[in-house]
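Dissemination and training. As part of the outreach component of the grant, students in the summer workshop were shown how a complex can be specified as a set of sequence lines and then modelled as a single object. The example used during the hands-on session is reproduced here so that future cohorts can follow it. Participants entered these lines:
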Amino acid sequence: MELVEKILKLKKEKRAIILAHNYQRPEVQDIADYVGDSIELSRKAMEEKDAEIIVFAAVDFMAESAAILNPDKKVLLPSAGARCPMAQMLTVDEIKRWKVLYPLVPVVLYVNTLASAKAYCDVCCTSANAVEVINALNAETVLFGPDHNLAEYVQEKTGKTVIPIPERGFCPTHLLFHPEEVQVLKEKYPDAVVMVHPECNAEMRKIADFIGSTSQMCKHAKESPAKTFIVATEEGILHRLRKENPNKQFILAYEGAICPNMKLNTLERIYSALKAEKHVVTVPEPVASKARKALEKMFELTQR
Ligand code: 5XR
Ligand code: SF4
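and obtained this result:
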């Protein structure tokens, strides 16, 4: 039997669903029940009442959020080593240090954080709703982490004072994008729309025609009349964009933009994780309940 068939058979037997982030390998996206950003996927898991196991093909913090929001399901991370380096950049001690400096200022954390950090914030946000969340807060100054580029972007969009914690948290993959490659691509494809993820640097955001999260890019690509897009986010998204828009052309803004942690999830590892029900992601109480409150507050503020 082919590996894909084996996975699908096992999935049925175990009442499992496979969720894949937009940055997963093409073959992983193709066997998934849903492909999306982490919060979209966690919400899908909440809707799947009959599922007992969630195979979350992504990185640690995403599986943790799914476990927090789906406490009665078993959440498996196909590759135990798939960890987001940006999430590691903000520790609980660091948050506490900033809270001492700014005791009255709310702490807003990007979902790209570990559950232990989320437990120490007032509200979470994604790159899709960060502006909306901060606008909804009754505060002119916020502490925001861990991505300093997203913090800067949100400050520009909201006009509020957004203090990055730590000072220079970043995504190593989005750091790779610079305007030089985009300029050359634009000369070749003058009508192309440049889509940039807010984790990219300010120079990249300056030359963007559209700034948004992976889910927002997918939506924009569908709705825009443009035929060609230069894309500045992890290369895995191109598979989904091409699949959903077969008549449009998508070009990666920098060829090496790969998140090695996202790519750790192979079909082989999905099969073996599902078979042995291994790499179970759990978040102990009371961390889980505190982090859940911060995620629920995000849902409340964004009315979704
Ligand atoms: O950089 C990421 O890990 C991906 C992403 C996205 O746009 O999908 O930035 N994740 C955040 O938006 C959190 C998703 O829900
Ligand atoms: Fe983390 Fe960046 Fe990879 Fe997203 S793309 S999981 S932020 S390292």
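The domain at 2-82+262-282 is CATH 3.40.50.10800 (Rossmann fold). Students were then asked to discuss how this feature might be tested experimentally.
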